[in-house]
UniProtKB/TrEMBL annotation:
Keywords: ATP synthesis, Cell membrane, CF(0), Hydrogen ion transport, Ion transport, Membrane, Transmembrane, Transmembrane helix, Transport
Localization: Cell membrane; Membrane
Keyword Transit peptide: no
Known role: Key component of the proton channel; it plays a direct role in the translocation of protons across the membrane.
GO molecular function, one term: proton-transporting ATP synthase activity, rotational mechanism
Protein name (record): ATP synthase subunit a
Predominant localisation class: membrane
Entries under InterPro entries matching the protein: ATP_synth_F0_asu, ATP_synth_F0_asu_bact/mt, F0_ATP_A_sf
Transmembrane feature ranges: 6-31, 70-93, 99-120, 141-159, 165-190, 202-231
Top-rank taxon: Bacteria
Family listed: Belongs to the ATPase A chain family.
Entry keyword annotation includes Cytoplasm: no
Membrane topology: Multi-pass membrane protein
Amino acid sequence: MLFEGTIFAITRINLTQMLATLALVLFLVLGTRRMKIVPGRFQSIAEMGLDFVRVNIAEDILGKKDGRRFLPILTTIFFMVLFMNITGVIPFLNIAGTSVIAVPMLLAIVAYVTFIYAGIKKSPGGFFKNALLPSGVPWPLYIIIVPLEFLSTFIIRPVTLTLRLLMNMVVGHLMLVLFFSATQFFVVGLGGWWTALGAGSLAFGLAFTLFEIFVAFLQAYVFAILTAVYIQLAVAEEH
């Protein structure tokens, strides 16, 4: 869209990501800048979202002490994924900011680094040992267990976090494109009695749009709660 052929080239999805980020910042600033004991509508919505992350993700998984400690990063992840996802159903944007691998990968790296930081902070000398060498296992089996634990804990977790979010949003986008393209083809391209099929594909497209709104929220919740679970595993007493 802008600066084509340069390192500063901006595509439609880059613009979507910028708008989602701007909308998120405005939402949080406007919702929290003038806090009142009796909140207005906008403050109530902001508080509801923040309390949802605090109660249902951070404190529910990590407890009050560690929940409050890691609440900023979990809140950032939840709202960033939610706002980037929801652009996929907004007219004239029509693509999720998380439907290219850069954003899910960045968030997965943040979650991964936070997980390792939490484990080392909790047990500087025993985190990697306990992660790779579970107790109570006969030592010859460590030849098999250590590579498997390394893959499971330090490779598969960030990869699955990335791909789960990416593929859900890409598939959702493709399904919406399919339904609404079919509607245009049947109604505008063919006309006549084919319009009835166009009405059917339009109905499916509208229904799937509502489902995509649910998926946008669900994927934000899943990403944040898995991050909290990984942190909880790192700060558990055995580490």
